[in-house]
Amino acid sequence: MTSQAFDEMGKGASLHPAYAAIADWLRETPPADLAAKRAEAEVLFRRVGITFAVYGEGGDPERLIPFDIIPRILARTEWQTLSAGLTQRVRALNAFLADIYGKQEIIRAGRIPAHLIQGNEQFRPEMQGFLPPGGIYTHIAGIDLVRTGPDQFYVLEDNARTPSGVSYMLENREAMLRLFPRLMARHRIAPVNRYPEDLLATLKAAAPERAGPDPTVVILTPGSFNSAYYEHCFLADEMGVEVLEGPDLFVEDDIVYMRTTAGAKRVDVIYRRIDDDYLDPKAFRPDSMLGVPGLIAAYRAGNVALCNAPGCGIADDKAIYPYVPAMIRFYLGEEPRLANVPTLLCEREEDRKEVLANLDKLVVKLAQGSGGYGMLIGPHATQAERDEFAARIRAKPQDYIAQPTLALSTVPTLVEQGIAPRHVDLRPFVLSTKDAVRIVPGGLTRVALREGSLVVNSSQGGGTKDTWVLEADPAPSQSQSQSMGGAAAC
């Protein structure tokens, strides 16, 4: 699979110009020096405490996400194409959410089957007839992209609920600045450090009007046992807001307050990192100990904003994903700028027959799965595993989708054996208000560190890279300088 994949850096006459200086750097730097820098990066990440949690596998659940020191690079024109497509897609997703919790015109127009909405467990009837401030439902979206060729990008997945990973994007850049300041100085790299500022502005823009120009914003976390707890605390610190757990908040007369040493303080905006089911035991799961009783009533009364809104999960359900291009045409009257991966819905008899006949060629996913779990990569699976999935599909076809096994692009990666190509994806983070869509240039590049693996999730052995979006062509590489008769830049 790796040998068939598009190499983003290229080599020889096909070397991507954006990678010219990196190619020189890799050629000039002894392997021992690269290994030393990788070890230095690991020490740095351990010192800062950049971990994620994996439970149920035994051992220490707190793990360090592997960080690769070779950056992934996108040219300015490549990013402009992606940015325009991401903006379009998230605008359509927000319009879709407003519609299905409102007049449901897309259903009446026959563009999407009603049962996929009304029978979906991510659809929240509690949200029907309620329009959040500014008409925005998914304020923070993470859109997973994959690449298969020079100009071939596909949206693999939409994350419209509580997308994670932005802290690693920011920490990766900080690590590269510390480890390789001279290398970075040879490139004009678009900054990512404004993300916390943009996030805070997005959250404040969602506040009820009566909150005034400086609303009180907090982050609601499930607590230290959540896999993304580090990120919750990191973002709270970067934005200068409180990170709270459910018991730190209470509702009185449909108004949300947080407990402080100086007494109760009113809260205007909650950036919630808790799943819908656990947000409010009065509205959803009565056994939830993580949420805030009465929170949804306060939200519907217009006294507090929740970002993202409850019910956003219907927009990133994998059974809904095939219909996003239709959403773009229906709500925006535009052709999609970014393509979907061709997708088969196992609930359709014709699609199901095709899937069952080609399990050795397809990737099968749970419609509501995440994190790389509940997935079959047919070409890499055993016959027993394919037989097991066939039985699952026959038993509950509505739970599964299937897609072709894409040859994800590769970038050079430092592994134990040296520098080798490894498959990657990209998760840019899209911030939406009623007036603007903001996207910091780049995003989180996740890399499948195991040879031949297509699974990039950290919980499944993946790592991360810094993603550089070039604002201009890089400084001439050593080989280019020599060809022009100039001295090589250090």
From TrEMBL:
Annotated SUPFAM superfamilies: Glutathione synthetase ATP-binding domain-like
Which parts of this chain are annotated as the region Disordered?
458-490
**Gene3D superfamilies noted in UniProt:** 3.30.1490.270, 3.40.50.11290
Q: Which Pfam families match?
A: CP_ATPgrasp_2
Give every Circularly permuted ATP-grasp type domain span: 71-448
Superkingdom assignment = Bacteria
Q: What is the name listed in the Swiss-Prot or TrEMBL entry for this protein?
A: Circularly permuted type 2 ATP-grasp protein
- Source organism: Sediminicoccus rosea
